[in-house]
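User: Predict the structure for this protein chain, please.
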Amino acid sequence: MGSVLTTNYDLYVEKLFKFSPLIGNNILLSNPYGSVYKVHGCVSDAGSMVITQTDYRNFEQKYELIKAQILSLFMHNPIIFIGYGLGDANIRGLLKTIFSYVNKDSEQAQKIRRNFLLVEFDKDNMSTEVVEHDIDIEGIGIIRINKIKTDNFSEIYKEISNLILHVSAMEIRKVQSIYHEILKGEKGISVTITEDIDNLDNNEMVLAIGAKDNIRYEFKK
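Assistant: Here is the predicted structure, written as structure tokens:
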């Protein structure tokens, strides 16, 4: 799991995953790996909490850049929503914003839909089958999403815990921190990010991140 986004105010998630909490404007300068996005604030900062109708109105007006950052995460990563229903204003607002920028019939929209899974509570239903569901979004039209209706959350959490990343979120966070220090260094170190190793010169230093079984090292004179 790379990061967690929550509208809860408590400290449970960051303590459970040992992730760094991001509150308010800190989200703008965030490292997406190993972070908990506290979009409605946190009990550790009472002034950040979005609770009243006035708070929500201010949130909508002041946090456009924060929403853009969060939307970028949603559009490029698999997202599992737990604890929300199809009638939830947060879900509908998110889908409306995404498909205001992305044509709902485009290939990019198909990719977003494949990345999107809503887990909805359904009392005494022990099924964990993923089904397609059509939802009508005002101003956008019909959008098809993936959904699970269940009361069997233990099985859902078990499957999530079985997801294995080649590199953990915290390891990526540490490497990014080191990379940041290299860029700030005063020794004239030049750093290049590349996906094409064959085009690197032999005298260039390479930092490889990945599973050891997927990385091959070859030294050339």
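The radius of gyration is 21 Å.
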